[in-house]
Write a structure and sequence with these properties.
The chain is of the alpha+beta class and 185 residues long. It folds into 3 domains: 31 residues; 34 residues, no CATH class; 88 residues, Sandwich (Immunoglobulin-like), CATH 2.60.40. The chain is 16% helix and 37% strand. The strands form 3 sheets. Strands 5, 7, 8, 10, 11 and 12 form a 6-stranded mixed β-sheet that branches. A 3-stranded antiparallel β-sheet has the order 2-1-3, with no helix packed on it. The longest helix has 29 residues. The chain is rod-shaped.
Length: 185
């Protein structure tokens, strides 16, 4: 502890002690009568002891009671009502490929793009579902690149998920037809 800190600590303690002593003196003074005595030399003395009968001039002072007021009644604080759940209209829609699209002959590669509204929050992510099963991990991006998808019809959906696992919204199912060469046996 440095010297400046110690001095501030002592000064603060002294101020508190002085305030307490003044408060005690005020209470004691309010409880007892005070006498003003002037002796033959003109010296004035204030005391709480009754004067001797031979004092020159004696005046009894009555200290008025302390100025006090009743404390204000404290109204109980009513708890604020819980915020009502705001029903935000979510929109999650697969834009590309369009429902019923055919992916031309090739290796079975295509992209899925989704439109969402309102934008994702930090606690939300998107999950692509293909044929009823999750495709890849949940992500923040609005686009997936699918590769080497088998030929035939596939059902695509996108889920908007909260980090707690709650499903916020789901797109309509979009059907896609993938054409790929087959090997004749």
């Amino acid at each position: 502890m440095n010297e400046g800190h110690r001095k501030r600590l002592i000064y603060a303690s002294t101020r508190r002690l002085t305030a307490v002593l003044w408060a005690l003196c005020a209470v004691a003074a309010a409880a007892t009568p005070v006498y003003k005595i002037t002796d033959e030399n003109g010296n004035v003395v204030f005391t709480d002891q009754p004067p001797a009968v031979d004092a020159e001039s004696v005046e009894q002072h009555t200290i008025r009671s302390l100025n006090t007021a009743e404390p204000l009644a404290i109204k109980p604080v009513e708890p604020a009502p819980p915020p009502t759940a705001v029903n935000i209209p979510f929109e999650t829609r697969i834009e590309q490929p369009a429902n019923g699209s055919t992916i031309p002959m090739g290796p079975g590669n295509f992209s899925v793009t989704v439109l969402i509204s309102p934008p994702l929050t930090d606690a939300e992510h998107l999950q692509l579902e293909m044929d009823g099963a999750p495709y890849g991990p949940p992500q923040k991006q609005h686009q997936w690149s699918l590769s080497n998808i088998y030929r035939g019809e596939h059902q695509l959906r996108v889920h908007r998920l909260h980090s707690s696992g709650a499903q916020m919204d789901t797109s309509d199912t979009s059907a896609v037809f993938v054409l790929r060469p087959s090997v004749a046996r």
